[in-house]
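Propose amino acids for all 442 sites.
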C-alpha cells in the first residue's frame, strides 16, 4: 500500500511529536517529520542550537533521567508519538518505561537495544541464528585474551563489549598492539563497558549501512547508505563517528540486497521473535561486503549519524506514518517508502582535534547558502547569550544536498560548505569519492 494524503484519515492523531536526542541525526528526523501536514509541533529533548531553525520545532529543557517528571511533561504536552534517537536512553530502558505509561514509542526496549549495548551478546545472537559475521572470542580476563592472541594466526580486532561512544574498537597492526589494546580496556579505559572484551577475526571489504524499520514482526528498508568512518581523506587516520555519507549505496544492487535480506535481515528479525523480543524501532545493520559475501560488523539499535541526515531528505511526509506503524505493531511490510528519485550526500564539518580533544565555543559564520535541495543540520552547536551560533562538539554540523547524481550533489555541498566558517573547521574533501565520476584524487 502506498501511503498518501488521501488515506490520512486512517492514522491517529499525530499533532505533537517528541524526539529525544541532541545531534544532527535528531535534527534531520525532526526536519523529515515536520513535513507531515498532520504535525503541529515537534519537540526535541534537548535538541541543539540548530533545532529551532527547523519549522514547527521547539526545544524542551528536562532531564530524561527523571523519568516520572518526563512522563508528566509529555502528558501535559499531549505528545502523540515519541522517537528516541540515541542508544544510551534505549539501553537504559526509556522506551519500556514510556510504553508502560501508554505512550506510542519508536525505539526498542532494553532487550532489543542489547544488540548494540553488548557486542558479545550480539555475536552470540548471530551465531544462534547462523547469520554471517566474523569469528569471535568473548574474553573475561587479560590472561584468557593473551592465550587467544598468541595462539591465533589471523589478524584480530579488539572491542570493548559495552557502549563506548564509537571509541571502543581497536584495529591493531601486531599481536603486541592487540595485547595493549585489550589491556587498556580491561584497565578501565571504558569503565564497566570494558568488563568483557570481544576479540574478532579482522575481515576486509567496503562497508555499507542498511536500516530496517521494524514493528516487531514486519519490516521495511530505508534507502541504503555508505558512511566514511576515518578522519582523513583516502580513508586514513583514526575512526570517527562518521565524516560524511551518501545514499543510496550503488554497491548494493537489487540482487545483492536480496541476498542480504535472505542471509541477514530476515534471520535477524526471526531470531528476535524467537527470543521474544518485540523490537519496535530501527535496526541498523553495519555490514562489510567481503569476498565471501556480506557479513555483519555490528548492529545498532538506532539510526546512524550521518547516514540519517543523508537519508531523511529522500523521505516524503509518509515517513512519520511508518514510524507510527512501527510503534503500534501494524506495519504490513508492503508499504512503499515514497523516496525521491534523487540521490543524497552529506559532509560533516568538525572541530580541530576531533575525535580526540578539541575546543568549543568558536563563533560559526554562515554566509550565502543555496538552500534548494540543501540542508544544514547542526550536530554540536550552542547559542551564546547574544544569540550567536557557537561550536559545541566534535562534529559541528552536517551539510546535506540532493540532486540527480552524486557529482552534482557533492559539487553543491562543497560549494555551500565554502560559505561556512569557524576557527579550526575541518572536513574531508573526498566524501563520496566512490560514486563521484568527476572526482580527482589530489
Ligand atoms: P563497530 O563499532 O563495531 O562498527 O566498529 C567500528 C569500525 O571498526 C567498523 O566500522 C569497521 O571499520 C571496523 N571493524 C569492526 N569490526 C571489524 C572486523 N571484525 N574486521 C575489520 N574491521 C572491523
Ligand atoms: N555512522 C556510524 C554510526 O552512527 O554509528
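Proposal:
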Amino acid at each position: 500500500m502506498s501511503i498518501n494524503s488521501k488515506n490520512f484519515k486512517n492514522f491517529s492523531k499525530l499533532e505533537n511529536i517528541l524526539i529525544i536526542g541532541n545531534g544532527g541525526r535528531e535534527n534531520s528526523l525532526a526536519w523529515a517529520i515536520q513535513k507531515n501536514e498532520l504535525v503541529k509541533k515537534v519537540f526535541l529533548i534537548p535538541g541543539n542550537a540548530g533545532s529551532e531553525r527547523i519549522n514547527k520545532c521547539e526545544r524542551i529543557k528536562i532531564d530524561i533521567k527523571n523519568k516520572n517528571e518526563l512522563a508528566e511533561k509529555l502528558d501535559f504536552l499531549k505528545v502523540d508519538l515519541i522517537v528516541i534517537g540515541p542508544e544510551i536512553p534505549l539501553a537504559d530502558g526509556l522506551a519500556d518505561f514510556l510504553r508502560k505509561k501508554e505512550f506510542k514509542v519508536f525505539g526498542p526496549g532494553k532487550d532489543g537495544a542489547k544488540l548494540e549495548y553488548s557486542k558479545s551478546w550480539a555475536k552470540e545472537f548471530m551465531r544462534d541464528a547462523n547469520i554471517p559475521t566474523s569469528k569471535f572470542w568473548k574474553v573475561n580476563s587479560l590472561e584468557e585474551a593473551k592465550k587467544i592472541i598468541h595462539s591465533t594466526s589471523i589478524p584480530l580486532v579488539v572491542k570493548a563489549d559495552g557502549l563506548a561512544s564509537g571509541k571502543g574498537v581497536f584495529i591493531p597492526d601486531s599481536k603486541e598492539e592487540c595485547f595493549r589494546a585489550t589491556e587498556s580496556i580491561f584497565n578501565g579505559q571504558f569503565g564497566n563497558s570494558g568488563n568483557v572484551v570481544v576479540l574478532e577475526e579482522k575481515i576486509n571489504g567496503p562497508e555499507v549501512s542498511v536500516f530496517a524499520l521494524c514493528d516487531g514482526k514486519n519490516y521495511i528498508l530505508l534507502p541504503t547508505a555508505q558512511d566514511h568512518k576515518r578522519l582523513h581523506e583516502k580513508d586514513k587516520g583514526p575512526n570517527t563517528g562518521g565524516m560524511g555519507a551518501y545514499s543510496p549505496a550503488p554497491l548494493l544492487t537489487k540482487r545483492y540486497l536480496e541476498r542480504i535480506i535472505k542471509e541477514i535481515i530476515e534471520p535477524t528479525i526471526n531470531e528476535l521473535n524467537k527470543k521474544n523480543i518485540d523490537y519496535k524501532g530501527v535496526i541498523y545493520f553495519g555490514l562489510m561486503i567481503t569476498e565471501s559475501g556480506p557479513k555483519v560488523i555490528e548492529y545498532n539499535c538506532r539510526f546512524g549519524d550521518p547516514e540519517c541526515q543523508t537519508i531523511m531528505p529522500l523521505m516524503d511526509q509518509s515517513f512519520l506514518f511508518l514510524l507510527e506503524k512501527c510503534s503500534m505493531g501494524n506495519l504490513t511490510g508492503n508499504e512503499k517508502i515514497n523516496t525521491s528519485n534523487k540521490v543524497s550526500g552529506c559532509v560533516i564539518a568538525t572541530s580541530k582535534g576531533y575525535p580526540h580533544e578539541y575546543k568549543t565555543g568558536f563563533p560559526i559564520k554562515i554566509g550565502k547558502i543555496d538552500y534548494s535541495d540543501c540542508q544544514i543540520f547542526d550536530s554540536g552547536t550552542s547559542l551564546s547569550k547574544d544569540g550567536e551560533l557557537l561550536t559545541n562538539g566534535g562534529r559541528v554540523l552536517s551539510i546535506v544536498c540532493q540532486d540527480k547524481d552524486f557529482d552534482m550533489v557533492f559539487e553543491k555541498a562543497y560549494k555551500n560548505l565554502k560559505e561556512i566558517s569557524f576557527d579550526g573547521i575541518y572536513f574531508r574533501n573526498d566524501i563520496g569519492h566512490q560514486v563521484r565520476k568527476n572526482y580527482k584524487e589530489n
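The mean pLDDT is 95. The domain at 136-200 is CATH 3.30.1490.20 (Dna Ligase; domain 1).
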